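Rotation project, supervised by the postdoc (A.L.). Task for the rotation student: set up a whole-complex structure prediction and record inputs and outputs verbatim in this book. Inputs entered:
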Amino acid sequence: MIDECDLFSDVSDIYFEADEITSLRPPTLLYPLEPFGIGTRSAESLESYILRLASAHCVTPHALYKFILSPLLSIHCLAWRNHKSTIGIRRPGCWNGYGLMANTLAMVLAEATSVEKLRYSSLGGLEDLISEFRLFRKEVVFCPTCLEEAPDFTKYYIRLLWSISAVEVCPIHKIALIPQVCGSSARQEGLSQKTLFGICSHCGSVGYKCNTTSSSNANEVQIWRATQIGELIAQSPSFYKLFTKESLKKGIAATIDALGDGYLTPAAKAAGLNKSILWGWLNNKCRPSLHLLLNLCGAANVSLLSVMKGEPEKSALPGAGILKRDVKVWRLPKPSQKARENALHETLLAEVPRSIQKLAKELGITEKCLRNDFPVLAQKITERRRQYRAETAAVKFKQATVECSAAILELERAGKPVTFRNFQMQLNRNILPKSLLYKAFKAMVSPR
Amino acid sequence: MTLPFGEMKVILSNEEVLALSKLTRQQVLDLPPQERMKYLYSIRVKHKKLEVVGKDLLRLLSPYSELNIFFLIGATGVGKTTLIQRLVRVLIERTEAGNSQCVASVPFIYISAPANGDKSISWTTIYNEMLRQADDVALSNKVSTIVSDGVMGVKYKTLAALRQALDSMIKNRNVKVIVIDEALHLLRFGNYSALMDTLKSLADKAGVKLILIGSYDLFDLACDYGQVARRAELLHFIRYYKENKADQAEFMRVISKLQERWPCKQVPNFSKISDELFETSLGCVGILKDLFLQALLLQIENQEKWQPQLLPKAAKSMKLLCKIRTEIELGEEKVKGATYGESYFSGTKLLDVANKMT
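Outputs recorded:
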């Protein structure tokens, strides 16, 4: 410790010294604990780091937050001033997420401990890319096998991966994550709601041994999703360098092209999404949520990381692509210009001309497209159809008039007054005011 | 000169001391009286015994040694605190030079054992003081966690919580040395074994080296427990003896060095009365320094004129001096053969061994 050093080697026979012995003040406010797994998929979450920090200082997390962190956070961010709950009970995103509050927390912790890596313990760097809506889960879930593998309780920690709601399984052990539910009736006094992770806050069991929930095996889709998010988290130190808004947009567009041959609708159907959602992503109306983005990537069998980088690549993992839905039933090839023109001619010459709208739907294109391509033909068809409708209406009116006359004749024979009510009863049906029968009746009755 | 009642205890900052150290003699003489008192007060003299004990202490603090409890004992005013001040400065300089492996390390903790009127020692006070020296947070909210049979229990604001917090602080702040000055006050706790058990556990579990500084009464504490005796060492800061010619010469050198820096125009010729000064200071440089400070104060009050008639009030009274002398001599007798360097291979045995080995 003190070697190669003589206490008086650098002083002369007479030297000066202050009388008071002052201890060296530590340069950091809090202990510089190393966060676990930064740069890997098992990166520790900020919430877990605070729990471990509180344990190292032998205080409760609440005391650490209230007396140490809260005053510092309130200086930098007004939102923290009103935040009363501790350790993500109500708002997990503000501890593990990427908003102003989470960024402030990471910054304050990094300054208080001089551990710069803490800035990568949250999802900071994704704020412009991924929507925070339902990104994090409120309850703590964990992988029991990961917990068992820790050498002792001081090494228990919450992975950031487990905090994300789209992750349902552990990608390492391929079993479902389970919530902590105490199955013991014993009650340990003094434990707060959020003590060290791995210690049951109800009975004090170390390693959640009181948990009776059993973990089920994961299916391929769940493993794939968890692995994709794990790979994303492993890149957390490089978020700002690797991912931009433009690269994500480019990746999504490329994925849609690959999945739907350039069309939004088939891509959306294949991914089980609404077309407007994809449209919103491409036109910067909304940020993609991680859950839905994974659906799209899964349907196209590309990795999430490559989509976010802007260059979708096939996912090497099995199970991807099974999310894709079969869309062959309704997807039609686009007709050529000649085929469209022929269809228009047929419609024009048909005895019963169809509307442009119906024709366009049958062809799988829009009405506007058809009208723009063949304005003259479309106009002719419109006039033809108008004429046809007028003729049809006249014929129908004539038929209605005949029916009406017959009914009125019957009423007169029966000696009943010719009122609209009797007329309806005679015909034994309800006649609407705008129908042809009503008009015919009015036309016949009104001169009388 | 008016007495500065607003500053009943002189606390010189490092900046003040640094400024004083750079002054020339003329500048010192031009200082106001209070500043000249501070000047002499902040002077330290490097002397042989100080260097020898300093080297011994450094050697004992080696990381390769299993010893982790050290008793630095000696007569009052012999220079124990001066030595520890120097040790602390060196540790600070080494840490600030970035030599520490840990960014947030606090290499040493220095506390003075409290004597606050309690009938028995308060470990709560001692632990709190150690944590406060390291700027630990939330001292009044410490929690202890005990794991037993796979279940964790929690206790709030207990002595165990403070102790656990202290162990954690020592580990996380990379503390290497804890110095407890005025360790005599620990002796009020009558059960020496329990006291030493606690200290031994602190040193073993946390891996720190404990230095307890005090008078010869600490010897009883050190020797009471065999387990501790194996891990402990008594470092005796010996005073200068008049019978020893080398000691005499060195003491004279100390007197002349202090005299050279006398902050008055008229410099008393202390070198001529070195024997008498030796007698009245009992061979302790600290007592000599106190005498010089009193003499300076008296000279300044006497319009800066030195007269031998000022000496009676500068030195300690006879009865008090006798009392101190008796205590020192009893203490020295008590620790004979028990201190660092007085092993099996000392004295005549050393000659035999040396002959055999050559």
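Student's summary: Chain A touches chain B through 56 residues (CB under 8 Å).
Supervisor addendum: Strands of chain A lie at 14-16, 141-142, 178-179.
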